[in-house]
Design goal:
alpha/beta, 3-stranded antiparallel sheet, Rossmann fold, 9-stranded mixed sheet
Length: about 425
């Protein structure tokens, strides 16, 4: 038996801690805040990932199970500051070789990659969903870590912008699964603008809305979005991949279709051309738009969609002025004000200050009473009980990019 396969057997069938330590994977310790990051040595993780990649040639199931066990150990021992390398995370599904499309597994096409985005959920309410997923041996990760699976483009500039997982989307995921997201999402009718790859959409679905409508514009993005959402829905239910097409509550519908409570609906939506009456008919109680304002030419359409979804009255000549709140005030505003009226959260990575100002000016003129709640969303990074993504190497830094967050309502609060 090869060394790699022996390692996989030991990890998959026994207590993996001693094996991992012998292999050089361990949680770092010490009191130095800069160096004590609770992360396993990245080089050791890379060595383990290479061994498991070799294992995949003999037994993909063993390799995937070994990767999950290794990740569990890293998170258990590293705690909230654990970091898992991309290479090791990709071994959970065999890396780049396969993805789910339509009714089964399909080969990767050029530029596409299957990704596993790991996070520590930290919320007691997630225990039941994780327990259900444990019945699916192929995808279970355990109570210490959870995952979002997505097929994405590796290059942000290749193809549609909806094929790449953008930084603010990861901030939105952590928000959706936090106590702040719980107040705005659980039991409410939620609409996401620019759903893209479905990473944030999966977090929204796990936050238990009464209805979830996911939207994007072009056909290729919608097709990939549907496949990714279906895959994560299958995993969440702990059912066989063969049952993927039997899901009746993940549907692709035209925008004017009737929304069924409890359903996840995926719909084509062109912000500039869609009928305002069709958008208003969704009866949205919470709207999320993450990284939808990177291009100033898109902002008028985005604001038009926000106004229609929130059923905003015709704006008066008076411009509503952006208010900026500190963390405690912003948290109170989100929980006590936005959760009781139709509201929207616009999250955007800060790339060009000029583009950000165009967004702010547009929200003010539209009568959407924007409130800067960046402080409250950013505070989740420092909250030990809040969910956090686990692999943020310097080359990725998903949720560490500078961002702004604006809460919008149709009336001043």
């Amino acid at each position: 038996m090869t060394c790699s396969r022996a390692l996989a057997l030991a990890l998959a069938q026994g207590d993996p801690r001693e094996v991992l330590r012998a292999f050089g994977v361990r949680a770092s310790g010490g009191g130095d805040e800069e160096n004590d990051v609770g992360t396993s040595d990245e080089a050791a993780q890379e060595r383990l990932a290479r061994a498991l990649r070799t294992c995949e040639k003999f037994s993909p199931a063993y390799a995937a199970r070994a990767a999950r066990r290794a990740i569990g150990v890293i998170v258990d021992e590293g705690g909230a500051r654990a970091r898992v390398s991309d290479a090791l995370a990709e071994r959970v599904t065999g890396g780049e070789e396969t993805t789910v499309s339509g009714s089964g597994i399909a080969a990767e096409s050029e530029g596409w990659k299957n990704r596993v985005y790991l996070y520590a959920p930290s919320r007691a309410e997630r225990a039941e969903a994780i327990a259900r997923r444990e019945s699916s041996e192929a995808y279970a990760l355990g109570a210490t870590a959870d995952a979002i699976f997505a097929r994405t483009q590796s290059d942000a500039l290749a193809g549609s912008t909806g094929a790449f997982a953008w930084p603010a989307g990861f901030v939105a995921c952590e928000f959706a699964l936090s106590h702040l997201g719980d107040a705005l999402i659980r039991g409410r009718r939620v609409v996401e603008l620019g759903s893209g790859t479905g990473v944030t959409a999966t977090a929204l679905a796990r936050a238990a809305p009464s209805a979830l409508t996911l939207t994007d514009r072009d056909e290729a993005t919608l097709e990939n979005l549907t496949a990714n959402v279906r895959l994560n829905a299958v995993i969440d239910r702990g059912i066989s991949i063969d049952e993927i097409n039997a899901l009746s509550d993940v549907s692709f519908d035209p925008l004017d279709a009737v929304v069924t409570l409890g359903a996840c609906s995926i719909r084509a939506l062109d912000w500039e051309r869609a009928e305002t009456s069709a958008m208003a008919a969704l009866n949205a109680e919470f709207v999320l738009a993450a990284d939808c304002s990177y291009d100033p030419t898109l902002i008028p359409g985005l604001v038009r969609a926000l106004r229609a979804l929130l059923k905003a009255p015709h704006p008066s000549d008076a411009v509503t002025t952006l208010r900026t709140l500190d963390a405690s005030e912003a948290e109170s505003f989100l929980i006590n004000a936005c959760s009781n009226v139709p509201s929207a959260l616009v999250l955007s990575a800060v790339r060009q200050e000029g583009t950000m100002q165009v967004l702010i000016d547009s929200l003010e003129r539209a009568g959407l009473h924007p409130v800067d709640v960046t402080s409250a969303v950013d505070s989740l990074r420092h909250d030990a009980s809040a969910p956090k993504f686990l692999f943020r190497e310097a080359s990725r830094m998903f949720a560490h990019d500078a961002f702004r967050a604006f809460a919008c309502t149709t009336a001043a609060a």
